[in-house]
Write a structure and sequence with these properties.
The structure is a homodimer of 314-residue chains. With 314 residues, the first copy, chain A, is α/β, with parallel strands linked by helices. Helices cover 39% and strands 22% of the residues of chain A. In chain A, helix 1 crosses helix 2.
Chain lengths: 314, 314
Amino acid sequence: MFIGVDIGGTNVKMGIVSKMGRILASTSFKTNIPRSPENLIDEIVVNINNLLTKSNLTLKDVEGVGFGVPGLIDTKNGIIIKAGNLNWEKVDFVKLFKNKMNLPVKMENDANCALLGESRFGGAREYNNAILITLGTGIGSGIMLDGKLLSGNGCNSECGHMVIQVNGEQCACGQRGCWERYASSSALTRRTIEAAKQNPDSKLNDIIKKWNGKVSAITTFNAAKMGDAVAKQLVDDYINYISTGLISLAWIFHPEVFVIGGGIAKEGANFIAPIQQKLDNFVKENNFYPSIAVKKTVLEDNLGIVGAASLMMG
Amino acid sequence: MFIGVDIGGTNVKMGIVSKMGRILASTSFKTNIPRSPENLIDEIVVNINNLLTKSNLTLKDVEGVGFGVPGLIDTKNGIIIKAGNLNWEKVDFVKLFKNKMNLPVKMENDANCALLGESRFGGAREYNNAILITLGTGIGSGIMLDGKLLSGNGCNSECGHMVIQVNGEQCACGQRGCWERYASSSALTRRTIEAAKQNPDSKLNDIIKKWNGKVSAITTFNAAKMGDAVAKQLVDDYINYISTGLISLAWIFHPEVFVIGGGIAKEGANFIAPIQQKLDNFVKENNFYPSIAVKKTVLEDNLGIVGAASLMMG
């Protein structure tokens, strides 16, 4: 048995995972930032013991614990270099955990974990060269080449900060024009709110009013489906922003597949098909490429836990 | 002894190289495009024999022949997938050469060769994680991680086609806004010619007239040094374009050093220092990075031959 722990900015999700990728028991609790790593680890340890008891297992049944963390990770040394959403910098996480629970442990960036999970149990199974991106508040990225996670200088990639617009929108990282300022799901939400304000007579604005101002990236896709021109333009631009970054990555890495995760990927065909179309055009225009598939993550809500557990599956 | 052959769009440069990276004998001839690979190989074979004779060596002294080719290379299978400047597609190059000369042979993208050369004998010797870019008609890129050349799906990277400006200038690849449309040395030349036309009273325009309309990227740097405001703006923008792409690559690969090649890198401190400054600011702003050095290639005119020969040095 393996334990997967997905530490997010809002929730910690964790579970016991079989070597076939099945979740036998799981739980979650609020991350409650700001919080010290030691304090969070204490709650994780309590929950590991609870999950084991609930499943009639003991520590001896655990082959290892994998942690997925949103941030820049020094995998080799088990150190969180920086995790902005957790407000942590230079945390000797693996060592802190081992002080509390003597089990084999690995930690990786959460998007890399997701890619491992999709690669072992999900939509990237047939591929040795795969890139996964998660569209959320920012853009997370995991890159697998020849079956191995890419690690530059011991660190994970952070493709969300590739610049796609010189002198473009200000990003929290200090740069301007980062990909995630245009292609994250929160970027689409932000653009949708702006566009609705500027177009008070649009169906988009009606929908937002009907939901008492609540907007998510899904709102825009729904309004576009209803034929609203403002929303359609937003969606077209959004697909273009996403595809632009993917094509940049294709020139660098020549992947066989892009796997896209995050709530918005649940839009399914509406969302994936036009991106696939852009990639197909690209491949055709540069006829030296094999085709590049575009897929959404298939492990869905289990991805975080199963991905983290996959770290320990060798 | 090793033989290095650098096939460029204009010239083929080749030489005999010692294991210490010294060129013992060299020659060059016009590539003369359009030309069949077989025909070019014939001329290369003649020249290899001539160089050996001239150096009192025989084929038995040759440990291998390395080829550097500007394009997308399938290194494993020795195939040129596409080399736009040579007008070649899907060329089984290594096999064709071996039909004529039975020696150990390897072929790589020319920027990857340059990085190998700089890594073994030049400015990247102390680094295991290095990225080299060459600024010419386009932008070539070589990426080394943990001492090994990056190979995605068996191919070299083509970072010159990362998009840095969504919906930007049209590129020959079919996309808009590619990095090389802004940061190659030919991009600077093109912008310089436009700016001089639009500012007929500028010192920049005077200089261009004095040289009978001949413009290179160096022209702009010279005019900027003389205090011309138009040229200064061009140089500032150019440095920004280059740095923007480098920083995108830093987020993805976390390199220890960027090595910059191409004629314009000979500008030296005028050129490298402001890029280093941009990278230093980036590192400071995201305080989790170690510093990233920026250097120009040091092998200069020998880089093509020595780099290609390095392919065979294990």
